[in-house]
Design goal:
single chain; mainly alpha; globular
Length: 253
């Protein structure tokens, strides 16, 4: 691993895990005894190092189930806006409940994503073609995509869950909810907050050939998050990743 890749690996690890741990600490750990805080903290960071997205995914699901989905206001109150006093920062200057799950909404998000996927694949293909001419070298896809394409059934099965299930839940929580919504949006214009979180999302994926796709996906998921909430954004992200893997399997066949 070269120095740049090593630095990016550390950056990605921290940008994903620090927000999740901060939420874990704020919601569940800060009132615990010191021994419990130290033990759970050690378990989280050791688990995050050795299990990649599995431990962050488990903690995100825990945060969703035990906190975000429980502090929402009663159904129908003020058109789904959040009413719990502890949760006022959960929905910055919007009238929707970002934690509401609606089957019809997520289905529409999935369909819209497939249309978006076709368009951005064409744009990204043109970008890669031009880039390969300018750089006069082969432009390689993202490393995890290459691993999936070249691996056997067992590793591919594990990668499928990491890419299609774990990554969307974790990344939407980190990049859309924590960075965009909680950190950036209260401090800057909405468009700049969306741009900045999308830029960090793109950098975190560290792949020259996928810059248009990653940046556009981040903006698309931010739009879905704003209009339909967190679970719709997760669905969009899952549909995007799943369609990519299906395309890879057809290419290999």
């Amino acid at each position: 691993m070269d120095v740049t890749r090593y630095v990016v690996f550390i950056f990605v690890f921290l940008i994903v895990n620090i927000p999740i741990y901060l939420q874990l600490y704020r919601i569940f750990l800060k009132d615990k005894k010191s021994f419990s805080i130290i033990s759970i903290t050690a378990l989280y960071w050791i688990g995050a190092i050795f299990t990649e997205n599995l431990i962050p995914f488990i903690v995100v699901v825990l945060l969703l189930y035990r906190y975000h989905l429980k502090v929402n206001c009663p159904a129908g109150a003020r058109e789904g806006a959040l009413g719990h006093p502890e949760n006022q920062d959960e929905s910055y200057m919007r009238d929707i409940n970002i934690w509401r799950f609606d089957g019809h909404t997520v289905l529409n998000a999935a369909i819209a994503t497939l249309v978006f996927k076709i368009l951005i694949t064409i744009v990204n293909g043109i970008y890669v073609y031009i880039l390969s001419i300018l750089m006069k070298t082969e432009i390689r896809p993202q490393e995890v995509v290459t691993d999936f394409y070249e691996s056997g059934f067992g590793p591919r099965f594990i990668l499928f869950f990491i890419i299609v299930l774990f990554a969307p839940f974790v990344e939407e929580y980190v990049f859309r909810y924590f960075l965009y919504d909680k950190l950036f949006l209260p401090r800057m214009p909405r468009g700049f907050a969306a741009f900045l979180s999308a830029a960090i999302f793109t950098i975190a994926h560290y792949n020259l050939s996928g810059i248009p796709s990653f940046f556009a996906l981040a903006l698309f998921c931010t739009y879905i998050y704003e209009k339909k909430g967190y679970f719709a954004a997760v669905t969009a992200h899952m549909a995007f990743n799943l369609s990519t893997l299906i395309l890879l399997m057809f290419i290999k066949i």
